[in-house]
Each structure stands twice: as structure tokens, then as C-alpha cells.
């Protein structure tokens, strides 16, 4: 992390002017940035905190053609999980989504954050409690009719499927779309793509008991929970009603988490003893996303290996059931 980089995109005069205008309107009095902390190393877009009073502003800049749609979906998703589950979310600055000449800004009041490497036992427990509280909100359908989202740069179709069965929703709305993206990227070997395609129709045989549709974060990797003195605050949500295990599988997808996360979760909701056997199943779509975006980098190749191992494992499990 670097402080006060002079040439950061968020420090450009036209961008800084838009942030200042939004923050001043939000505060009801003039607001001015008095310092800047670069957070680019923690995001896929230019982002950082502009320090000012009475609040600092977290800002993210995206110049992609669908930037407004992505940021609007994030604001709507945060509103949904706060309203339905009563969990903490960041406060948008003004409308939250602000246009600039070559892109869009996402603006929140910055949080007093404790970084992942400095988390306390209470911080980890708060993440577990927050996830469990999300999962106590239910629906009669998998998906989220009328409100799609984004998983990273990928549009996430939340339209319910006719059968209203979790394995079908997961196959049609998560795995197959990202399989097409991975194939189209050219980074997914043809034999592995074929193995995934053959696995998809048999997901129901691996999925365990049919779950009740629960509100899920949708991108619940640990960095999408901000640890504050008041507890965990969720960010970068991609919510819909799905299988709670998909969040539990993603929370330690990129890096290990303390066992306190799962222990605290169990204080509110049980975790099926067979969940560890399904963990990699619920990561297939995320592996395909990583391969699509970063297939030639060391990061992407790592997840290509994990995808291959997971597909081989579940193919073997199905073979042993014959």
C-alpha cells in the first residue's frame, strides 16, 4: 500500500472534483480531500481512500462500458442484504454511483478497517455470524427474479430456473455461463472443458440434500468482509437465494480463514458434516472465472490446476457410484 501517489487516477482534477462535489452534497457542507491512501493492490480497479472531514471517502473508478451497471448492481445488492438480513453495509456517498468524463465512480463513507493479517478472534467470529444471519433469510425460489448482479467482471444471471432445484440453478446460471466464458478466452484446454461439460448434467448426484433457498452474499471471499471495531461490514455483494454452502466454500477460496469463522457460524446455523466433500463442487464456477480472466498468469494457472483436480475428483466419485 502506498500513500499519496501523485499520479493515481483518483487524483486527477476532474475525478477529484466529482468526488468533492458528491461528498460535499452528502455532508451538507464543503468537503475537501486532505490526503489519499492507494488501495489498488486490493482491487481490480483503481481505488483508494480520500481523507477528509467529517468522513473519509472510499472511491473506486471503472472505465468499462458496463461500469454504471456494475456499480448500480452493487448498491442495489447492498441495500437488499441490509434490508432483508439487517447486516452492516457501507454508507453510499450521495447516490453512490457518480459519472466522470471517462467512467464511473463508486463512493462510500470509508470504514475504520482492520486488515486481514491483523484480524482478531472477534473479527473472524463476526464474519461467521454475519454469514449465518444472511443465510437465515429464505425464499421459495433459487435466484433473485428481477435483480441480476456481477461476479467480478461477469454478469450474473439470477433468473430462477423452471425446475426450481438447486443443482439445476447452479448448472444453468453459474457453471455453464462461466464455462462458455472460459472456453471463449482460449485459456481452458479442450479436454478439461469437455470434462466439465460431462460433469454438469450430474451435479444433482453430488449436491447432497436439497437445501432451502437462502440469501447468500454471492462473492463471500474473506476480503469482502471489512473488519471494523463494530463488527464485520459486507462489501462487493452479488446476492441471490441459493445454497448456503456456496458462501462457506468461497470464504476461504483465496486464503485460509480462522476456524472461528465456522465455529461462530454454527452458533446460529448448522453446517452439514458432508460439506467438506462438496466444497470444491461449489468453487467450480469461481475457478472458471479465474481461468477466464487470468488464464496465462501464475494466479490463473493455479486455479486451472485446482479446477482440473476438482473435476477429476468428482468424476471419480461418480464413477465409483455405478
How would you sum up this structure, described in words?
This protein is α+β, with helices and mostly antiparallel strands and 322 residues long. It has helices spanning 13-27, 67-85, 121-135, 166-185, 190-199, 244-250, 260-266, 275-278, 284-294, 298-320; strands at 36-38, 47-50, 57-62, 92-100, 103-109, 149-151, 154-156, 214-216, 225-228, 231-234, 240-242. The strands form four sheets. A five-stranded antiparallel β-sheet has the order 1-2-3-5-4, sandwiched between helices. Helix 5 packs across helix 10 and helix 9 (284-294) packs antiparallel against helix 10.
Mind sketching the topology for me?
Elements: H1 13-27, E1 36-38, E2 47-50, E3 57-62, H2 67-85, E4 92-100, E5 103-109, H3 121-135, E6 149-151, E7 154-156, H4 166-185, H5 190-199, E8 214-216, E9 225-228, E10 231-234, E11 240-242, H6 244-250, H7 260-266, H8 275-278, H9 284-294, H10 298-320
Antiparallel strand pairs: 1-2, 2-3, 3-5, 4-5, 6-7, 8-11, 9-10
Helix pairs in contact: 3-7, 4-5, 4-9, 5-10, 9-10
Question: Overall pLDDT, averaged?
Answer: 94
Strand content: 15-25%
Output the number of helix runs. Answer: 10
In total, the number of domains comes to: 2
Unreliable segments of 5+ consecutive residues:
none
List SSEs in N-to-C order. Answer: HEEEHEEHEEHHEEEEHHHHH
In summary, what is this structure?
By secondary structure, this protein is of the alpha+beta class. The chain has helices at residues 13-27, 67-85, 121-135, 166-185, 190-199, 244-250, 260-266, 275-278, 284-294, 298-320; strands at residues 36-38, 47-50, 57-62, 92-100, 103-109, 149-151, 154-156, 214-216, 225-228, 231-234, 240-242. The chain folds into 2 domains: 9-109, 2-Layer Sandwich (Phosphorylase Kinase, domain 1); 117-320, Alpha-Beta Complex (Aminoglycoside 3'-phosphotransferase, Chain: A, domain 2), CATH 3.90.1200.
Amino acid at each position: 500500500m502506498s500513500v499519496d501517489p501523485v499520479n493515481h487516477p483518483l487524483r486527477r482534477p476532474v475525478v477529484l472534483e466529482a468526488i468533492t462535489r458528491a461528498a460535499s452534497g452528502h455532508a451538507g457542507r464543503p468537503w475537501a480531500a486532505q490526503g489519499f491512501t492507494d488501495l489498488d493492490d486490493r482491487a481490480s480497479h483503481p481505488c483508494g481512500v480520500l481523507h477528509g472531514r467529517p468522513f473519509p471517502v472510499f472511491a473506486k473508478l471503472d472505465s468499462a462500458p458496463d461500469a454504471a451497471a456494475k456499480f448500480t448492481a452493487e448498491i442495489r445488492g447492498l441495500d437488499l442484504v441490509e434490508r432483508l438480513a439487517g447486516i452492516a453495509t457501507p454508507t453510499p456517498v450521495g447516490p453512490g454511483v457518480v459519472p466522470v468524463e471517462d467512467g464511473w465512480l463508486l463512493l462510500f463513507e470509508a470504514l475504520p478497517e482492520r486488515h486481514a493479517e491483523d484480524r482478531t478472534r472477534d473479527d473472524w467470529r463476526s464474519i461467521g455470524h454475519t454469514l449465518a444471519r444472511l443465510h437465515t433469510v429464505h425464499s421459495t425460489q433459487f435466484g433473485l427474479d428481477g435483480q441480476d448482479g456481477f461476479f467480478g467482471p461477469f454478469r450474473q444471471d439470477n433468473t430462477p430456473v423452471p425446475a426450481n432445484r438447486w443443482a439445476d440453478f447452479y448448472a444453468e446460471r453459474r457453471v455453464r455461463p462461466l464455462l462458455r466464458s472460459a472456453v471463449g478466452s482460449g485459456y481452458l484446454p479442450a479436454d478439461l472443458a469437455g470434462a466439465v461439460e460431462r460433469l454438469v448434467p450430474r451435479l444433482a448426484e453430488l449436491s447432497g440434500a436439497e437445501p432451502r433457498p437462502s440469501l447468500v452474499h454471492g462473492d463471500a471471499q474473506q476480503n469482502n468482509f471489512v473488519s471494523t471495531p463494530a463488527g464485520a461490514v459486507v462489501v462487493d455483494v452479488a446476492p441471490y437465494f441459493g445454497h448456503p454452502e456456496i458462501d462457506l466454500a468461497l470464504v476461504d477460496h483465496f486464503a485460509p480463514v480462522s476456524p472461528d469463522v465456522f465455529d461462530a457460524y454454527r452458533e446460529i446455523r448448522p453446517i452439514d458434516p458432508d460439506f467438506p466433500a462438496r466444497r470444491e463442487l461449489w468453487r467450480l464456477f469461481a475457478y472458471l472465472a479465474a481461468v477466464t480472466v487470468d488464464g496465462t498468469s501464475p494466479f490463473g494457472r493455479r486455479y486451472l490446476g485446482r479446477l482440473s483436480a476438482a473435476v477429476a475428483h468428482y468424476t471419480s466419485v461418480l464413477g465409483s457410484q455405478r
